[in-house]
Design a protein that fits this description.
Two copies of one chain form a homodimer.
Chain A lengths: L1 E7 L4 H13 L4 E5 L6 H7 L3 H5 L2 E3 L2 H5 L4 E5 L13 E2 L1 H6 L5 E6 L8 H4 L4 E3 L12 H17 L10 H18 L3 H17 L4 H17 L1
Parallel strand pairs in A: 1-2, 1-6, 2-3, 4-6, 4-7, 5-7
Helix pairs in contact in A: 1-2, 1-7, 8-9, 8-10
């Protein structure tokens, strides 16, 4: 994925630093700043290990130079689009993450106080809006960047979090063992069915990893031997 | 959803303020602070329109008081669990958002520099980890809270209502019975611990209803009688 993060007129250096950090967290590196505030020690402190992203950021004078060379221009907004023509329909960050984004993509974020102006939003291919509490929908700038980059990288990076899933054969073995135990300890067919389906549902909901499933199988096997 | 956000020993007031803001953005209000840094004007500035959440935050001296009254305790970590016993398998924020969380939930976040210590993680029902770039996996505290609350609130409006959650006493009974069974069928203390904590984690992750829990208790009781 070839994503350029563009901050339009950011006014708080802490936010620019935080954006650099979170870009690094999610594996993005290309940061463009359109006429930003001055960046000093606070920006560097908040960039933390994303300091290289901050140091390599390009400062440009206009939107045009920020999106030059990009194939897809994506805007972001905290406001419900309703009064413009044409009415702006936003996608959610989750939908964005599911898209097949090819080519060079520019992701535009507006200034902290005003967001992206309508004339910029009109130039984008589409707009992303984060679902928030209608009573206070406006996220901090770096938080907005965070959520959108999180969704964009989620599918790619998720494999780092979870262990291997339990395979079908092992799930079936678990199910078989549970059935055998139940057969030995319950009398009534009705009760057997109830308990068996409860156990299946519980293990289904817990999204067992291969390791967890293996231990449960061993647990059931040991019970069966003793019964 | 009844979610309490618990920050353990936060050391930067800006982060506490940012957390209050993002809680408000996603419609959460209950913030507990365990021995936080002192909170002044910077925290208030960053809380922005989430100032009411910050003002209502409870400062408590210990984890125990922070999770008192909660039915489900969820930890967060930026580290891959690998060197602990048992190996800690995490769920993703997306999986968390898809869970049927009922009862009162405490979401624990560690200190900026150290995260949650292992002895706290071991006490949780399960752990959430945000998929990040392995080269720099550690997110800013407020960014972590942001992503997890975002995922938790994303599906809120489409949630269907289900049965009552399993109460704490019943969870404890389930845990006790599991321990008694394990005692009878395993030899080595190391294996007993592994299997016991796996069973606990699996039932923690499956968000048992009172009915499902009741059937599991009956299942274990019957096994115990036969053993």
């Amino acid at each position: 994925m070839d994503i350029r993060v563009v901050l339009m007129h950011p006014q708080e250096e802490e936010n620019v630093g935080s954006v650099a950090r979170v870009m690094k967290n999610f594996g993005f590196t290309e940061l463009y700043l359109v006429s930003p505030c001055s960046l000093g020690r606070r920006a560097e402190a908040l960039a933390s290990h994303g300091l290289d992203v901050l140091a390599a950021a390009k400062t440009v004078p206009s939107l045009e130079s920020a999106i030059s060379g990009c194939d897809i221009i994506i805007g972001t907004t905290g406001k419900k689009g309703g009064h413009q023509t044409p009415k702006r329909e936003a996608v959610t960050p989750e939908q964005l993450g599911g898209m097949d984004l090819r080519g060079r993509v520019a992701l535009l974020f507006g200034n902290e106080a005003h967001g992206l102006p309508n004339e910029v939003l009109e130039k984008t291919d589409f707009v992303v809006r984060i679902p928030t509490n209608p009573k206070y929908p406006i996220l901090n700038l770096a938080q907005s960047v965070c959520i959108i980059l999180y969704e964009l990288s989620k599918r790619r990076l998720t494999k780092t979090v979870r262990g291997k899933p339990l395979r079908k054969e092992e799930r079936e073995q678990l199910d078989r063992f549970a059935g055998e135990i139940i057969d030995k300890i319950y009398e009534q067919p009705h009760q057997k069915r109830l308990v068996h389906s409860t156990l299946n549902r519980v293990s289904g909901k817990s999204m067992l990893t291969a390791q967890e499933g293996g231990r449960m199988i061993s647990f059931y096997r040991k019970i069966l031997r003793k019964l």
